[in-house]
Structure formats: structure tokens, C-alpha cells
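Figure 2 data, in text form.
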Amino acid sequence: MKIIDKIKDTFSRKDLLKEIAYSVPYSNRSVWGDFSLFQNLTPQSLASMLSDIKNGYIPKEYLEIASDIELKDTHYRSVLNTRKLAVTSLDIKIIPASSEEKDIEIAKAVERDIVKNETAGIYSLIFDMLDAIAKGFSVNEIIWKSENGTWKPKEYKYREARFFRYEETGERLKLIDAYTQELSELPENKFIIHEPKNHSGVQIMSGLAIPALFYFLLKYYDITSWAAFIDRFGYPLRLGKYSPKATEEDIETLRRAVASIGSDFGAVIPESAILEIIESKTTQSTSDTYEKLADFVNKEISKLILGQTMTSEEGSSYSQAQVHNAVREDIAKADIRQIMETINSQLIVPYCKFNFGMLTEYPKFELFKPDADNVELIINAVSNLADKGLKVKASEIRAKLGLSEPEEEDEVVGGRINYSNTATDDLDYLDNEPNSNTSINDNGINYLDDYNDYIEIENEIAEVLEKAFDKCESFADIKKAIENLSVNWDSSKIADIMATAFFMARARGDNDFNQDTDL
């Protein structure tokens, strides 16, 4: 890069250090909402609002109400968070562009400055990005910082969707001026704009809040009417009767009794007065109608957000929920892929350009959920086939397990164990001990003072065995020959052989045990 280009690049990056889409009180970019819009929502105003959206104008009232229904409707908020948490609960790994040392170092830098950057918070960023599921788009501003020549995110700031508007073509998102209706371009490498595809066409129509608003309004009127019905007909009718001979004092006493019977369990009235409590015969059936409509709306919202109802409604069996959960898994996979595409193109690539220049291939940000069964199967297969000559890259195994490669200064667990393969190795190990009176390991187990007293198998024994086996034609003959030899042999020699074998087994076992405890 030429010097003049470096100077221009340095000055252009200064905008990355400051906030651009900041909020301004009492302006077009105020973070405080207007709940009066929600309170005045009617079928007519909603129809007008949706008509404006379809014609290319995005009123901020729609984005305001799209946020408000998350605060008002508990079911909508629950299923929406279920879909978001299906993504934010996953693990993260960075895949190097290749196996070359340079690409591996770049991937480690990305992991250090982005994934493990707790100050910025990558998971909070992902959660805020998923606000686009409801509204059709989400915007997060990257506050970069330069430290020791390294550019990395200092903070990710969620920006209200009301601060932005699509241009006339409906393709490019722009920032609204705080005090006018002018739109300004969003600087490159400064914002993470997530635009998931839930609908083919204009991006704003991908927001699930558009169809949800209709069902929310229907449920809102239903619950309001239900509450009014319960207030009016939920209590039995209190009817007081008085005789023609009742005095004004008797009538007043009866009136007070009727008024207070709702809170008091008893009342005192004259003997000539009658107080009746009449229950509505249609209260239960009418109340069920309201409840059924509310349940219907909740199920439609579940279908809209999760693609099914079995995992969000009561009365479903475990097997039914598992079958329907596969549909939700497909939706989650689509959300995951789109989140990864956005982060890779709008965060990982700019980070690499700032710190390593233009690259042919960039490391990949990946969200994953380790499959326990598959991981166990792979580990067992590698363990079994390694002894048969199979060679596998350690980096691939680490990627499957979601583990990173340890640095030189890291404390590590595990490693390759070197076992001695022959009895000669064990004897050599003993011969190399500086003092035969010391223990073989640090467990405090002392062996016999002088292992040289043990007699190795003599050549004459080997010769006797060879001659006996040469005459055998079957395994039964070998067995019989060994039995005959054991009877005729000197018992002291057999004892020597057994003692040597036992000692070597004990020495080798303790040595291996000592190596295992160091893992």
C-alpha cells in the first residue's frame, strides 16, 4: 500500500471510533417510545399503517407498535424469545481459511478479539441482531478501538429500528436525521445490518410483526371484552325485594345490604325484606367463547414464529412435540445460517482487512451445537483405528469438540503416553535407576533391595522346550509335553521363572500407573 493510501485509510477510520446513530432526546431519534400509539390502535389505523408499508413508506409508528406488542403480549414475547434463544444458546468457533500457519494465526486473532472479547459481548450482539425476526431488519453500531496497532470492536450498540428508513427503492437502509426527515448514508464497516429472508420481496415485509399485529389486535379486543364481561356478569346478580309496608328506613337498609354483599359475606335486613342472588345461566358458555378465541390466536402466533404449536401448548405428548420440533429446528437452522452470513461479511471481514489487509480467503465464524452421539462415535472410531494406522488431523478433532489449540504457556491436560513395549525396556529402566534401593515411582512403594538375585530364563530351559515342541503335532501334544516337563523339572528353577515374571509385571504396572497419574 502506498504512503498516501495509508494516510487516507487512517483518516477514514477515525469515523469508526465515534458514535454516529446516537439517540437524541425529544427528536426523531429518541429512545423513549410513545405508548399512546398503542392505546389508540384500531382496525382502521392498523389497516392504514399496513397499506403505507406495502406502498413503500415505513411509518415509525409501525416499528414503535412492533416493539410494544412484545411488552404487552406475553405469548408473543415468549415464542419470539424461544426462537432467539435457539440461536444464542449455541457455541461459537472460528474456522481458519486453510491449514497454513498464517491463516491459523489470523483465526486465533479473530477468536481472541471478537469471540472472547467479553467487553464487546458477541452473544448480546447476536440477540440484538435477531430483533430483525419481528421487524424485518436490525441495526447494531460497531464502536471500534485501536490498541497497539490492532483494530477490534470496543462495543456493539443496538440502535432502534425507528432511527432508520429504507430509501424509495426499498433496498438500502439509511439513517434519519434527528430533526428533519433527511436520510444519510451509513458508513461502510461501521454498522451490522441484519436482514433475514422470511419473505420474497421488499425486505421490510419479512418482519413477522406485520401478520402478528392483526392477531394481536384481535386478541386485544377479545381480552378487553372478556374482562368487561367478567366484570359485569362474573358476579351473581344481587336483587333486593321489599314489601309495600316497608318504611324508608327499611328500604335504605336493604339498599346498603345489596351494595355491600359483594364484599361482605353477610348482611342484616328487616324480616319483611327479601334478598336474592341470581346467577347467570349463560356465563360459563360465553366465557369459554372468549377463552377459545384467545387460545386460537396464541396457536396462530406459535405457528407464525415457531412453525408449530406442539412445543408451546399444553396437552401435547412428548412424541408429538419431538416430531413438530423438527420443523422448528429447520427454522432455527435458517436463522443460524443468516446470522453467520451477516457476521462473517460485516464483522469478520472488516476486522481482517483492518489488521491483515485484503485476503484471498477469510476465516469463518460458525455457530454450532455439538452432537453428543456423533462426537462419541467419532472419538471411538479414531481410537480404534489409530492402532491400525489411521492418521487424523488433531485440528479436526478439536473442531469437532469445540476446543482450541493450547498455547505454549497454557496448562494442558492430556497428551501422548509412551509405554515400554518389551520386557527388555523394563529391565533397562531398572538398570538406569541410580539406586536399586529406591522406589520405581513416587508412590513410596519399595521393591526388593537387590533385583540381581532373580535368575533369568536359562538357555538350557529354552532348548528343552524347543526339543519338546518339535515332536508335537497338535496343541494337545504341546499341552501334554508341558505337563511332563513341569513334573520332571527342578522346582527351584520354576520358582525363579515365576518370581521374575511377577516382578517384571509389578514393575511395569507401577511404572505405567505413575505415568497415568501425571495426566
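Caption note: The chain has 18 helices and ten strands.
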